[in-house]
Design a protein that fits this description.
Elements: H1 11-21, H2 31-43, H3 47-64, H4 66-75, H5 78-82, H6 85-96, H7 106-117, H8 124-140, H9 144-159, H10 167-185, H11 188-202, H12 211-224, H13 228-236, H14 249-253, H15 255-267, H16 271-279, H17 291-305, H18 308-321, H19 331-346, H20 350-357, H21 367-379, H22 383-393, H23 405-416, H24 423-437, H25 448-459, H26 473-483, H27 488-495, H28 499-513, H29 518-529
């Protein structure tokens, strides 16, 4: 049962607090009034008043004023908490934020779940809380598929929620948790959507202190997808992140920003900055959910500029030490296997690389795996299969638009090996993808001749401007639908034109853009229109 709202004696007090802060835009100017109000209620033993304020501001205060939250748990009597399980769970969440993987203590989890199940019409926020505790437990055990199924249930619950009590305070943290599930399942597009939704809810009423953390998680997901331009855009939104003090909720969320900074430096091919930022990573990151990203960053630095053998041993040790957290179906397991395979490829140990890749899903590879699998095929001389893999991966459901720059660079290597094929177009597309995503680290995958050719395009004055291509309104509309991954027949139906007319439009679009297929058309058109790249939701 939800804690009773304080009756007539409390109503004027709460109204006065909310009245004093309701017109203030800056959240930080709200904190003192709320802290004073909570301390006064604690001193007067008005426990229901404290519960009422926690209902509205628990997560916001946990970030901005963790000391007052600690005082709440020190003062609330056990007998009161036993009749108010929502706050038993809140206390458990506070404690969990100081632990690896933020696991909720089992007794509190069980008590809260039983309380929620026993209600005829539980509040949506409480149902979400019970299910999120399960998500945390599955994630910590490496059961990504189960965690994903529950995350889907939570999103469906939100769509059909009969009430919205406390959403402004609760949902920013809920969507970060859902985004983490999507991230570890390899669905980078859905992860970005969840993190962006967290940021949107953080802006819904007042600037919620979760906003910079949501932005930092968006930045990290974009960086892992190889889109450093959008990663930097989101990172810029997270610069007012509060100082990370150990054993606080803020500390448990700060890792994403630091890791995004390292990946951004790697993407810019800035060896000095990447190595420095990697050294400066907070040691607490190694104990958290994103520990594998730190290992990934070190592997890229070693691959491009460092000691490959040392990092190879580190990754091998991590895969053996944490098999449940690095299974081949989780993004952590996929990324670390691909990192190790990349290092083996650089050392010409193709058999060892293949052994790792054989553990992954070959039929439907995850976004980060495509580059490593393609390179393996190329190194073994199977250029046709490598190109087929790139073409297949560039279609839905893996991508809804715009292949990563690394894929285009690898494809340029393949095309460059065949003098009969149009090399100018593929080199231009690769250069455009590198420039428009800021993925200069993709150039490490280019053969020397391809690297020189792409560099020449990037350094030319023309590379700084969009190509002079005049697409009609209809042609632009068609390219947009192509970017969404719709089949040609479905696009024709949506636009109420015949298939033959659709083919004519496509022919003109391809000629204007100087491309040969829909994948190249979408990539080239993005440079014409300046549209933002998208990653598939799946």
């Amino acid at each position: 049962m939800q804690a009773a709202r304080v009756q007539n004696t409390l109503a004027p007090v709460v109204s006065s607090v909310l009245g004093r802060v309701s017109g203030v835009d800056d959240w930080h100017r709200r904190i003192p009034a709320l802290v004073v109000e909570i301390d006064a209620a604690l001193a007067d033993e008005r426990w229901d008043a404290v519960g009422s304020l926690l209902d509205d501001y628990f997560f916001a205060l946990s970030i901005s004023a963790p000391d007052v939250i600690d005082r709440v748990w020190q003062h609330l009597p056990d007998e009161w908490l036993q009749t108010h399980p929502r706050y038993v769970m809140a206390a458990a969440v506070t404690e969990a934020s100081t632990k690896p993987f933020q696991l909720i203590a089992a007794p509190a989890d069980r008590t809260f779940a039983e309380w929620v199940d026993g209600q005829e019409s539980p509040a949506t926020r409480d149902v979400m809380g019970a299910r999120l505790a399960l998500v945390r437990r599955h994630m910590a055990s490496g059961r990504i598929e189960r965690a994903t199924a529950i995350a889907d249930e939570i999103q469906e619950l939100l769509r059909e929620a009969p009430d919205h009590e406390g959403f402004e305070d609760v949902l920013p943290s809920v969507f970060i948790r859902l985004g983490m599930v999507r991230l570890l399942s390899g669905a980078l597009g859905r992860a970005i959507s969840s993190f962006a939704e967290s940021w949107r809810w953080s802006q819904a009423t007042y600037p919620h202190p979760f906003a910079p953390f949501a932005a930092a998680h968006c930045a990290l997901a974009y960086a892992l997808a190889g889109d450093y331009v959008h990663a930097q855009m989101w990172r810029d939104r997270s610069m007012d992140m509060p100082t990370a003090v150990p054993n606080t909720m803020a500390y448990s969320f700060h890792a994403a920003g630091e890791l995004a900074d390292v990946l951004l430096a790697i993407g810019a091919a800035d060896a000095e900055a990447a190595q420095r930022k990697a050294r400066e990573l907070d040691h607490g990151i190694e104990r958290g959910e994103l520990w594998w990203v730190a290992v990934h960053a070190r592997s890229r630095i070693a691959l491009y500029w460092g000691d490959r053998s040392q990092v190879s041993r580190e990754i091998s040790a991590e895969l053996h030490a944490y098999p449940s957290l690095t299974g081949p179906s989780s993004l952590a397991g996929i990324v670390l296997r691909c990192d190790l395979a990349d290092l083996y490829q650089a050392d010409l140990d193709f058999d060892a690389a293949q052994h790792l890749l054989d553990q992954l899903d070959q039929g439907s590879p995850c976004l980060p795996a495509v580059s490593t699998m393609t390179r393996q095929l190329m190194l073994r001389g199977n250029l046709d299969a490598a190109e087929r893999l790139l073409i297949a991966a560039a279609r839905p459901p893996l991508l809804s638009a715009h292949p990563p720059a690394r894929w285009e660079v690898l494809r340029a290597n393949i095309i460059a090996a065949d003098s009969a094929r149009d090399q100018e177009t593929v080199l231009r597309v690769a250069a455009q993808r590198v420039q428009h995503t800021g993925a200069y680290d993709a150039m490490f995958d280019a053969d020397s001749a391809v690297r020189a050719a792409i560099s020449a395009v990037l350094e030319s004055p023309a590379s700084a401007v969009r190509p002079d291509v005049d697409l009609t309104r209809r042609e632009t509309e068609i390219v947009g639908l192509l970017a969404e991954g719709l089949p040609v027949r479905q696009i024709a139906e949506e636009l109420f034109i015949s298939p033959n007319t659709m083919k004519s439009h496509l022919g003109r679009i391809y000629r204007k853009l100087g491309v040969q297929n829909r994948t190249e058309a979408v990539a080239a058109a993005s440079c014409v229109t300046g549209s933002a790249p998208e990653i598939a939701a799946g």
